[in-house]
Amino acid sequence: MEQNVIYSFGKFRLHTDTQLLWDEREGRQLQSKVYQLLLYFLQNSGRLVSRKELFNSVWQGRVVEDASLRLAVNNLRKALHDVAKNPYYISTICKRGYRFMPIVTIEAGSPVNTSLAKITNISPRQAMASADIGSFDDVELLRLIRSYRSMTLGRRHICSAIVKRKATS
Questions:
Q1: Is 17:4 a contact under the CB 8 Å cutoff?
Q2: Pair 4, 14: CB distance under 8 Å
Q3: Which of 4, 37, 92, 169 could form a disulfide with 112 if both were Cys (CB 3.0 to 4.6 A apart)?
Q4: Domains identified in the chain, total number
Q5: What is the pLDDT of residues 50-94, one digit of tens each?
């Protein structure tokens, strides 16, 4: 099990389990350092983060040029459709560092069950046979599978199901 945290800011959501950055329509994979940089900014939103702190945290203290940080910040700005001269997300504080400006909220923090990924493209009967998810009617299981598919596409979806327990005698 892996921890699934969804950071929301502006029109974007970052899913830590898939490492996808979602806007209103689509999710995109970020380069590794750009993802780590965004994650660090999200965890330190609102405060000035020095270049030295970013090198220590994102690059784990490896000796890299300032150009590497500038390139990663520019790539992140492109992904966020942000403009350095009139920033909405990332403000550059001259010769000191950066400030991630939007308010960040954590939408979810529940464990991700990777076995659920196996039931996204199979029939309800196959799902019942392959996953230990209890006893469901076909209709209820189909609703759960559709909800899961919707959720994996980044859409919010509420679904309920009635679990029928087998009578023990």
A1: yes
A2: no
A3: 4
A4: 2
A5: 999 999 999 887 888 888 999 999 999 999 999 989 999 999 998
Are 119 and 100 part of one and the same domain? no
Sheet holding 97-100, edge to edge: 48-50, 97-100, 90-93
* Mean pLDDT across the chain: 76
Domain that holds residue 28: 2-107
If you search the block for the tokens 């220590």, which residue do you land on? 56
3-state secondary structure the chain: CEECCEEEECCEEEECCCCEEECCCCEEECCHHHHHHHHHHHHCCCCEEEHHHHHHHHCCCCCCCHHHHHHHHHHHHHHHCCCCCCCCCEEEECCCEEEECCCCEEEECCEECHHHHHHCCCCHHHHHHHCCCCCCCHHHHHHHHHHHHHHHCCCCCCCCCCCCCCCCC
Same domain membership, residue 35 and residue 102:
yes
